[in-house]
Amino acid sequence: MAPIETPQELALVELADTPVSLRTISAGSTTVIAEGRTALNGSFSFTTKAGQNYQVCWNYQDVEGCRRVTRPDSSAAGGQALAGVIPLGPVHVGLKPPLVFGRVLTGDSRPCWVQDSFFELDVSTDVIGGGRNAKANTQGEYVILPRAQVFLIRGECEKAQVAQTIAAGTGSLRVDMTLPNRAPQITSIAATDGAEFTTRSAPAETLKIVSTNRDLDGHGLEHSWRLMGGSDGVLSGSTVRTESWDLPNIDGRRSVYLMARDGFGGFAMRRFDMEVGDDIIEASGQAVDSATGTPIAGARVTFGEAQAQTDGNGWFRLERKPNDEDRYVLNIEHPNFAMMSRILDRTARGQTYQMIRAQVVTFPSGQGVTLEDTRSSGICNQERSGDTRRTMRLVPPRFVGFEKTGDAAPRNRAEPAGDARTGTMVPGGLVTGGRLRDGGTVSGGQLSIARGTIGSVTIGTPLTDANSRAVAGRVDLSAAFPFERMDESEDATAAEAVAMVMKRQRECDRRGIQIRLQPDSFRLEDGTPYSGAVRAAIATLNPAIRSIPGDYQAIDANGDRAELLSFGALYADFTDMQGNRLGLRPGVEAEILTPVSSYQSGSAQPTIAQWSYDAETGFWREEGTGTLQNTSNGPRYVGKTSHFSTLNMDVSGNDPADATCVRFEVGSDFAAWSNLTIRAYVSYGGDSVQVKETALNNDQYQAIYRIPFGNGFPPNTLRLELRGTSSGQEVVLLDDIINTDARPQMTFDPSDPDALWPDYPYDECGDPLLLTAAPGIIPPYGDSDGFGRPAFLSGPYGDFNPADGALQVVDYYNAIDPGGAKTNLEDWWVANGFGPDGAGGGHPSYVRQAYLNHNDLGFGRDMHCRTDAPDAGDAACYVTNYGLPDQNPANADAAETQDPAVQGATVTMEYDAQAPQAERVQFYVFGGGTGAAGRINFADLDGLGPKPVPFLCMVCHGGGPSLNANDVVEHARFREFDLPSFRYPGAGEWDFGDGTATGVLDATDLDNFATLNEYVEGIHSGTPIGNLIDNWYPTAFSGPPVQPNVPSGWSTEASVYHEVHGKACRTCHVARDAGIPNNFLTFESSANLSGTSYAVCDPFDTGVRFMPNAVVTYRNFWTDTNRVNLYEALTGTALNTCAD
Question: Does 262 lie in the same domain as 155?
């Protein structure tokens, strides 16, 4: 890096495109041995030799300087000097006034740069003025040392320009500039086969891909459609918003990429996936207790005609054929839990299904009883009795769309929209102290919220910091939610009014549904009257807390399709003590009493329909009436039933004038989270609430139907909670409260009653909402480009993603396969002794093992290895990826079964024992897992876009950021098999000491992993990887590994070694030895890791963090507070400031 320190606002500026040189020092003189220029982020690197003194020198706008550095002695056996890297950290360049500095950003606050070899883009921003030319860095920052005092300064990115005349003076002047352009938006991509839109297709079909786009500045857009290789099919070469796609005659997930650009520095990119050859609908996942998170074993799962029981991990997997309606009912039942029933419209892999534990009571059949789920009593926002699984909320609520109504007061008041008055607010809970942008805390004073800025807390009366100094500006509001209004007058804004309603909903009394039974009410299933003990399992299903069975769709008494507004549902199951199901005798009815909560009472009608759930079709069916009565225990709807399943008191509706829908997509910043689920809380007139819940699949768009639409006050809202899983804990990643009355009403065709439930891609729901992460989910990763993509899998400074990567990969393949003998996977299999089917060719060394790479890429991995081919001492492995890079536990099952529907790219590795030592390991990548899969030049291993081979492999397999003079990789490594960092089929986990006791890995699995590690240790003996494997298997390569001993360099920091280095840094750095013993970058001692806070903790406050460099590992580290705190302690960083 080549940063400078600047006054006040900018603490650090990385200097882009700066001439740098490496010089040797000998006898008092220097000799230039290498020259170059810094990258856009200020980084540079030179190759050095051991035991020599050097100078790194620079020249920035005629200001020259040098820094002396020394390569420590390090040599291989025989005394040969080795090349390597000296980690310099920030190199401070002394620039003095007069100077002009600032940022050049686009109209939507993006730095204008893109370096993407897949789309052949190399775009950056130039700043010209005062007789100087400068290149803005990846943050949009620049510095100019002007030759004049008054001059025109101009920023340029492609055809976008901004200019102004300034008087620089003799000091330092900050000049920020905004380019008059905003990035275009690709608002949708969908595929049609000519008859309908589809998300899966038969092989060899031709599809039309249709995109819709928007450019807020009115520029015309150029479109570029790309595939990663021939295994993905053929495109027609369109440069407009539609494209013809001839699919390959190969099963698997296929992807097409679209880039749209406006020529003024605005870029957008989207990936669209198609499952090819998938003629089954799969449902798989894990059933867990909603209160504890404990897996539920032995639950009965039905999916159409398919049935199964959950295993010891609560896991199941079922398949069925598609139907014309694309409506599939998944039911999960267990004697101790309320039935879970979800409606799917396509395959759903690896989801978590939370089941509500029933309250179980027994009573004699001859006794009249009143049953109530008493666990439901208490305050609505409290956890239920017995709940031990807590949800971690990482964000406060955000109010979205309220400004579209001017955030006005009640609509019947004659008051102009946008009234500037403010409502004074105080924190509703304990505030531990706001945090200023500079990291200081605040105390005293008063918080206020200006009209229309709910979610932005500003300081009202004087506020002081820890040194009693007056401060002003914005504070972090995460500790200040929820807010209560001190004055609940009619001056309330719409957002404030909704917040008050939400508060009332949290404080309401919740009471369970009651069942009243007369004596001798039961019979056996064959009709025989039953006399004996009755086991009752009952549960109140509160639609304001969690979705009830089905999707709220119903069939009314007239046979018409309708949508329900539920006041509460009851699950009831009666059996004898042997588990035989009981029903009510003919002519006998049970009385059902459903409570009406305080926040529902305003919309409660005198009578409403009573419904029962049809578990086979997934529809609620009208079967009676409930009457509102004032009982001794509050208002309740009272009705009767002659049978039990899941019963519901609901108001139905199907009037299109009162409904809308919302289409949304999940932003790429959530890509690494697993088990993503949207929980949508729908409010009616700001009051009654029910929950709709759906697990997210890989489709670009999701939709919530039949949301109430009107013009009342408070407005109707949709509260979207995006929930994910981190280390087994459920976390809330997004909490957006959307004013649905401010959205366009959905379109409706009166001749088509099903139009209220539109099909994918849900165009009737209007423009999609993009759900993006709020600040604080995880610290922002540095160097996000003009697409908005962070630079994962490109090295800490992007140098593993060269702008000319498309050319370099051609040179690379020509160098390792000069005769073109390995252009498809079958050819590679045969050349490396696996046989034409890839099954090992009958060689005894062949090993195959499936798992989920849970701490790196997040794919399912189907690994195959063997030795001694094509020559003795050689080794080769190939691994096919399954699923998406999202840690979905179903990815491990897909890898084990080699599921063609989600089969991805195959990466192969060769170790050639006859090649020069540094060049023995090389890589190929193929576009699938079948023999016909062709070799590809790019791979998308993190969902953030294709990157060139072999550079994305080198990030975590070792080697430098460039090819050597022979156009091949140097010092690359096969990687160790770290069993605790994996996950296994059936949602299995394994840790040191488990052996085969958990049933996750049997003896064969453990021996397979031991053999794989033996192969890796054999070719990398004496390296950090080899030493780690020796620690895992101290006696023999068989059975389970043992927890490794702490290396001597870590003897005083054992916890940091296991929790931080072992679970985050080692994921890539253990391979970065570059052939040098004790290389700094392998972090074989705590002292080496302790000096890395400049890259990890952002001490210079640039908003940039580079580590860990794989998106899944990055998320795993930053969401684990214990790991971050251990790292802070090691590096001397103040506690809880590393993520600021």
Answer: no
